[in-house]
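QUALITY CONTROL LOG
STEP: pairwise intake check
CHECKER ROLE: data steward
CRITERIA: each record must contain a sequence immediately followed by its C-alpha cells, with no blank fields

ENTRY 1 OF 2
RESULT FIELD BELOW
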Amino acid sequence: MDVPCVRVPREEGEATRRELAAADLIADDYEITVEDGWLYVPVTDPDAVPADLEVVVRAAPERETQTTPAELLGSEPSFERLGDVALLDEDDPERAREVARAIVDSDLPLETVLNKASKIKGETRVRDWEVLEGEGTETVHREYGCEFALDLAAVYFSPRLATERHRVAEQVRDGERAFDMFAGVGPFVIPFAKRGAECVGVDVNERAIEYLRENARRNGVEERITAVCADVREVVPEYEGWADRIVMNLPHSADEFLDAAVALAGDDCVLHYYDIQHEDDPFGPGERAIRAAAGPAYEVTVETRRTVRSYAPHELNVCLDVRLERGD
C-alpha cells in the first residue's frame, strides 16, 4: 500500500527515527524499510514532518505481527492518542467499553483509555473523563523532542495542535523574549526555550503552572522559563513593553485580552492570535480587534492568516501572525 514516508540516508536513519518517534509521527501499521542506501520511515501526518526532512509516497509493507483495535472489533474505532492514553468520545457506554478493551488488547502501546464525560468547562478549560481502562488521568506526552507531563482531568491540552505549535516554535530565534498569556503546561514556551528564548508563561490554573514548572525541569529549560499563576492582566505592569513574541491561544475570548497584549509588546513584536469564527469571515473579526487595540501606537502588519482546523460546522479555528511595530 502506498503511504507517506520520510526518506533519509541509512546512516541518519536511527536519529531520524528517534526524532519522528518523539513527535509521535511514525505510522505503526507499516514496516520501516531500506532500499539502495535509503531508509524509509512511514509517517502518520506528512504535513507535520519537519521541513528539513524529505517526504515521499511509496509502497510500504504492513506489519504482520501487530494486532490493531480494528482487527479485534471488526470496525475502525475513532480515538486520539496522548502519551500512553487513548481518548474516546463515545456516547454509547457499551461501545465505549468494547473499544477500550480492544485498544488495550491490541499491540498499540496504550495502557489507559478515557472517555469524554463532559464538555470543556470553566475558566481553566478542563473536562470530566471516565476511566475505562488503566488507572488515573495522568500521562507524559512527547511532541517534537519535548516531554509534557500532565493530568487531563486537571489541565487543558490538545494533541491536535502539535503541528501548529511546531510551526510557531520554528519562528523563534535565540535570545528572543517570549510571553505566553495562557500557557497551560507549557506546549509553546518549552519548545521556545529550547530554541534559546527567555520565556514567561502565565495561567490561572494552579495545577497547569505546577506542571509547567515540572516540564521545564524535564526538558532542561527551567533557567529560561518564568511560570506565573495569575490572571495575565494582573501581571502586565511587571512586563510592560517586554515581549518580542506573544502567544494568545484562548480562541473563544482572546479579544478580551488584547489591551493587555499590546501593553506587553515591545517596539517590534510578533503576536500569535488564535480565534474561532464563522467560515464566511474567519480572519476579519480578529484583525479588526487587533488594529483597534494597537491603535495609533503601533503599525499593524498581518504576516500570516492560517486555518488551524475545523472547529464545528461552519466554524474555523484560525491563527493570525501579526507584527506590531511601534511608531516614531
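ENTRY 2 OF 2
RESULT FIELD BELOW
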Amino acid sequence: MLTHRNHPKRRRIGRRGFCALALALPVLAGACTATAEQAPPTPSVATAPDLQSLDAKIDALEARYSTRIGVAAVNPATGEVYSHRGDERFAMCSTFKAYASAAILRKVEDGSTSLDDTVVVEPGDLVENSPVTAAAVGTPMTLGQIAEAALTQSDNTAGNYLLREIGGPQAITALARDVGDESTRLDRWETELNTAFRGDPRDTTTPDGLAQGVRALLLEDALDAASRDRLLDWMRSSKTSDKRMRAGLPPGWTAADKTGGGGFGTANDAGVVWSPQGDPIVLTILTDSLTDQEDAQGNNQAIADSTAAVIAGLATP
C-alpha cells in the first residue's frame, strides 16, 4: 500500500568533446558554484574531425536562441560518444520522474510494493501542472497509473506520490549512484525542485551523468526485462516531447524520453531514440536561458534543432 508522508510545500566548462569509447559514457560529479559567465573554461576533449561540424552547429544554436545547450549522446553500435557542456550542471526538473518510476519498478521486483497498490488523491496534495491527478481527486489511483501519469503527462502530484513511495528525493540520488550516474542529485519535491536558481546545486544533473543513468535503465540491466519494458512503454507514450526531441527526429525514428522544465528558461529532454532499423542512440539535451531572466521561457526549438544535428552527426550509416 502506498504510504503517505508529509513533504515541504553557468558554469562554462568542458564545452565539447568526442571520444570513441568502448560503450562507456563518462560521468562527472560536483556541485555548481558559479554561473556560466563566471567560471573559467577548462580544456576541451579532443574532437574527432568528422564531428567538428557538430560542435559548430551546437555553438550556432546557442547563439541563435540565447540558450545554453548541454548534450550527451552515445551510439552503442559504434561506441561513439559526443558531449557538449557534458559536465556542466543544469536543473533536472521533471526528468527525475524517469528515475522515480524506475525506483518504483525496483520495489516491484523485490516484492516490497505492487503496481496495483492504490492511493486516494487528496485535494491538499495537488500542486501545479497535475492534469491526471486533479481529475481523480477523491478517488483511488493505482501506483501503475500514478507512474504512467508522471511519465506521459509529467503530472507533478503524481511525481510527489512516487517520491513518497520510494522514500523521498534522496532516493533519486541513491538510484542515480547505483546505475553509474555520479552527477544527479534531487533535494526537494514538486514544484520547488523546478526553481533552477543560478548557482544552486540542488536538484541538478549533468548531460553526461543523466545519459549514463538513462542508458543503464533503458538499454542495459539496471532493471529486469519486464520492468525495463514497462518503463520503455511509459516513456514511449510521452505526450510532452512532441515539440522537443521528437520534433527533431528524422522520419521513421522513435523515442522513449522524459521532458522537464523550470525557471530561467530550463527545458530538458532525455531518453533513447531509435532509427527505423532499430538502432538506438542515448540522447540527453539539457538547456536553459543565457538571458539570466527567471521568467524566461524554455526553448523547445533549441532542443529539436540540437536533436536533428546530433542524429545527423552520430547515427550509424
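INTAKE CHECK: passed for both entries
DESCRIPTIVE NOTE, ENTRY 2: The chain has a mean pLDDT of 88.
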